Predict the 3D structure of the following.
Amino acid sequence: MSEGPYDLAIVGAGPAGSAAGIYAGRAGLNTIILERQMAGGQVVISPSIENWPGEKEISGPDLSMKFRGHVESYVKIREFSEVELVGHDRLFTISTPEGELVAKALIIATGAEHRKLGVPGEDTLSGRGVSYCATCDGFFFKGKDVLVVGGGSTALLYAIYLHNIGCRVKLVHRRSEFRGEKALQEKVRSLNMDLIMDTLVEEFMGEEQLDGVKLRNLTTGEVLEVHADGAFVAVGEIPRNEIARSLGVKLDREGYIEVDRKMATSVPGVFAAGDVTGGLKQIVVAAGEGAIAATSAFDYLMEPYWTESG
Ligand code: NAP
């Protein structure tokens, strides 16, 4: 027996899925949010957020808790419920480890995940010194040598966070300029940390535990080995598009979901919001897209010719 039918299933409880849930709940849609991990998405692992209106500075976990409390006053969030498959005719049948549920419309708000460097030692030393989340693992490296890899806002935030908790930080970036937000660049420079520019990571070294990183300077060709107890990789993201693929939703060249101004995808009844749609990856944008997606799902369900049989 399938659970439902719900009016709307939202996959992902990050800022996009959360905002969609609030709008859907307030519109009176019988809605469920399915989240593969804890609610909050990548916000949970963000050390500090300084561009969410109304909060000059707030930690990721604190903002996530606020989102969650707000969402749950309208709709249910089912955590640790990974969607394995979505099938559809007029209704969407969603398989999770707990069983099947059925919904009339779907919002994909599955976000993006960390890109790996793909160098020797990365996989074997992952969780043994190599990490993708400074807020989760930084604590273990207090007073120790750490390397942050990347030049975007995430890498800059990680470097600042790790410096502030007492790590000795080296920041390694493949170009001579950072890509991340100017305010974060200025903060990093003001901390006088070791900035290793024009440099690639070639290998993570260590037997049981990371103890060094092999670097190559792209200008001089010089290969350098530096000691590191921890290495935090922040080199961008790839979209979590498995559900979209299983439904035959149209993706762009980089694998992000193509949407129109209403956040509608190429499949009727399927909407998408947040980082999985690409573009400007900001909490405020994801939340805005979630609001649009839920409103569009409401309009879709209110179409006078909508019936379960098609
Ligand atoms: P990002 O902006 O895509 O930056 C990725 C960084 O990794 C770039 O500097 C890139 O170098 C480098 N890189 C990529 N592949 C690499 C490789 N194979 N080897 C070495 N370096 C590599 O990713 P992000 O920092 O995770 O941010 C993701 C999104 O979230 C962005 O849209 C960002 O604006 C947003 N974000 C915003 C904030 C904020 O506003 N405060 C905070 C966090 C994230 P190049 O620069 O040479 O390409």
About this structure: The first helix runs from residue 15 to 26. The CA atoms of residues 180 and 218 lie 20 Å apart.
